[in-house]
Prior knowledge:
By secondary structure, the chain is mainly α. It is built from 16 helices and no strands.
Amino acid sequence: MGNLLKVLTCTDLEQGPNFFLDFENAQPTESEKEIYNQVNVVLKDAEGILEDLQSYRGAGHEIREAIQHPADEKLQEKAWGAVVPLVGKLKKFYEFSQRLEAALRGLLGALTSTPYSPTQHLEREQALAKQFAEILHFTLRFDELKMTNPAIQNDFSYYRRTLSRMRINNVPAEGENEVNNELANRMSLFYAEATPMLKTLSDATTKFVSEAAALCCYSSSCCRRDLSKEYRSRFTNEETVSFCLRVMVGVIILYDHVHPVGAFAKTSKIDMKGCIKVLKDQPPNSVEGLLNALRYTTKHLNDETTSKQIKSMLQ
């Protein structure tokens, strides 16, 4: 499938990469700076997006009141007034996903360009590799928050139904210019996904493969070596270990979505048993969300090619 698959499967090195990805101290070299700066413009907004999503409470009460009392114009206006600014937030999240997709494509191009092999790229361009990890880290955090907040789809569904009714009745609608019909359709497809950011990432990666004959994900060292005792001892911040765990799971899920046979097949070079064991060695309350991500957001876990032992480990 191209160069990046070699990174994930380590086909260009018999024992896998022998370098340390320094997530704490990696700084861009001169050759990395152009792409690094472009991606950094996007990533600097990521934490704010997560904070806004975490604080998203929805307009459930106002919507229920409006539905239960359809003849009460004040309640209808109150519900609409509550939903419109929330839809503005949902638009902001969706637009960020598009920016993130563009940033990812830039990274994929940089990490698979000639004359270096993908593994050489990861060793030479660790700042870009770290940015790729940060995108994966953000993706899992965003999707975790989205999956546990049903208000998002409820609010947007109410917005679309009400907007449609207003159009039929020729009632001017505040907020219609903010989210036109075409954008609303795209947003609806985005939020209908259980894991919308992962879907955006996997679609972007798949497009990159088909268009550039290269798939750049990550080194399987992220799944095997960075979390060994030797590698963990190099980190000075315990949060870096949590970061690596989340990135490890992100790599597995993304790989499982874009590789034809996935991450769980016996032919996969990702050490799935080792990765699951690493997760299960952590305090349960700190990794249950990551284990659930492997259980419920991967594509090939329940395939016949997945060993019974791996399935049992994730039960």
